[in-house]
Structure formats: C-alpha cells, structure tokens
C-alpha cells in the first residue's frame, strides 16, 4: 500500500481544498496522507476540525521556507517538512505568522513590478485565486495564464516570476535551525524536503549538510520524490541509514498548478511504501 506525505491544498498554493485532498487519497486507496502546505497549517486544522472518520490515515504536516546554513547558501532556500506537530502550538504559530506576514508584504511589490512592465494584473484578482488566503507566485502565474500573457505556468515563472526574473523579489526565510527547533517543540519530526533539488551540492556536500542538520535535530530526509532518480534515492538511503534518519516521500502534489504530477504516483513511477509512515509514527510516539 502506498502513501503520500507531501501534498499542498488551497490553504497555500494547491488547487484542491484540504477535504478534497483527503477524498482523493481515499479514492486512490492510499494508506496515509499528509497535507504539507507552505508556511501554514490552516488546511490541516480544517481537516481535523471536520471530525470525520477516514479510511486513509491522516498526518499533520507542514513545509517551511528556511534560510540555508551559510556554507550552503547559494541564494536558494531549504524546504523543511514537519510531521506530527500540534497545529495550535503557540511557538509554531508565531513562526508561521512571521512567514505569512513576509509573504503579504512581498506580494504587492511583485504586482507593482508586473504592472510597471505593462501587464494587466492587480492584487485583488490574484487574491481571488487563493481561497485559503495565502497568496504566492503560483496565483500570480495563474492570472497571467488566464489573461493570455503566457502560455502556461512554467512560462510565467521563466519570463516573470522565477528567481532572477524581472518581477522576482526575495522573501524572508526562517533560519534553518529555528525551523527545526519550532517543529520539534511542537511535538513533530523535521525532514529535509527534496534534497535532490538543491543546486550544486553533490554527494559530499549533501553528507555535510545532512550531518549538520542532524546535529540540530533533523529527523528524516525526503527520499522518494518525483524528481529524484535512482542514483539520488540510493544515495539518500545510504546517508539515512548511516545517520539514523527516517526515510519519507511524497508527490509534492499541487493539483492543477502542477498538472504533470498526480497524488500518490507523482510523474507516474512514484511509490512511497506504507512502512515509511508506520516508522514515522513509531518515532513520533517515542518522542
């Protein structure tokens, strides 16, 4: 039986509501689902507050945008997944409020840059694409696609919204140690998301990074991921065994924002075994 421990809802930059994700996971026969929205647990709370009984096990989750260690800072961000946290933990909520406020401050400035290039776009119509209230670049891209400015989401990022493009503005990122600490204080396990996407790191750098993060409390590494090839998966398995890190995996499903990625199967060949979920639960129970 498969699981999917990396999905996004309308609470951040996905196109499926939290409850739609749960129903989709059940329809697919997945053994477990985690909603890991960017910098918010609003979607998780929506599912928990619904109080329904699901055939698919549900795990609280989160994906935090973090600033890398100085030795690995190439202008990118690290994404740190959290699992099993109390979504109402006060310390975690303070951290997430800070990240969400940074997003709110960034968005109008990016819209102004797009307008300065002569593009017909305003913040109100972008916010309409984010029913969960957390606006991001994918919502801007959706407006540009619908208005015929670009042909698809990828083109919007390549021409306007991606790093180094005319409308791009850097955002605040939580220091990586603080992100791990907040997840752990809220009762969760911190996991490095999709390390195979970190630019220019190489096997030796990956070993150093994971070792540094392990010392700070990292509990796992996302190993099964649509853009991880067999070599990367093998490397991560070896490092995880060596450092006593949990293996996790997921599709990074965003609904229509990433049309080539499906829940549970990613690009078609992803399989995250149920045993990884049970191992994660066992580690959470041990504290």
UniProtKB/TrEMBL annotation:
GO MF annotations for this entry?
5'-3' DNA exonuclease activity; 5'-3' RNA exonuclease activity
Alphabetized InterPro entries for the sequence: PHP_dom, PHP_domain, Pol/His_phosphatase_N, Pol/histidinol_Pase-like
Location of the Polymerase/histidinol phosphatase N-terminal domain: 3-68
Q: Name one Pfam family in it.
A: PHP
Q: What is this protein called?
A: Polymerase/histidinol phosphatase N-terminal domain-containing protein
Q: Which organism is it from?
A: Desulfobotulus alkaliphilus
């Amino acid at each position: 039986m498969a699981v999917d421990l990396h999905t996004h809802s309308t609470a951040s930059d996905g196109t499926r509501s939290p409850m739609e994700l749960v129903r989709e996971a059940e329809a697919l026969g997945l053994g477990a689902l985690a909603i890991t929205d960017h910098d918010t647990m609003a979607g998780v709370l929506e599912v928990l507050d619904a109080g329904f009984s699901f055939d698919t096990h549900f795990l609280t989750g989160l994906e935090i945008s973090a600033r890398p260690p100085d030795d690995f800072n190439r202008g990118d961000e690290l994404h740190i997944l959290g699992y099993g946290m109390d979504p109402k933990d006060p310390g975690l909520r303070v951290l997430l409020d800070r990240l969400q406020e940074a997003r709110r401050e960034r968005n109008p400035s990016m819209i102004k840059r797009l307008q300065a290039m002569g593009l017909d776009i305003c913040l109100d119509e972008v916010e309409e694409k984010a029913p969960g209230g957390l606006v991001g670049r994918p919502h801007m891209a959706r407006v540009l696609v619908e208005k015929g400015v670009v042909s698809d989401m990828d083109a919007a990022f390549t021409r306007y919204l991606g790093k180094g493009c005319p409308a791009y503005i850097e955002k605040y990122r939580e220091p990586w140690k603080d992100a791990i600490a907040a997840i752990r204080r809220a009762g969760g396990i911190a996991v490095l998301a999709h390390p195979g996407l970190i630019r220019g790191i190489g096997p030796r750098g990956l070993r150093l990074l994971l070792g540094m993060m392990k010392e700070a409390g990292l509990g796992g590494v996302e190993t099964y991921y649509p853009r991880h090839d067999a070599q990367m998966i093998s490397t991560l398995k070896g490092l995880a065994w060596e450092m006593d890190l949990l293996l996790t995996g997921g599709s990074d499903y965003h609904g229509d924002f990433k049309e080539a990625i499906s829940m549970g199967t990613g690009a078609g060949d992803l399989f995250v075994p149920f045993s990884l979920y049970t191992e994660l639960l066992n580690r959470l129970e041990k504290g």
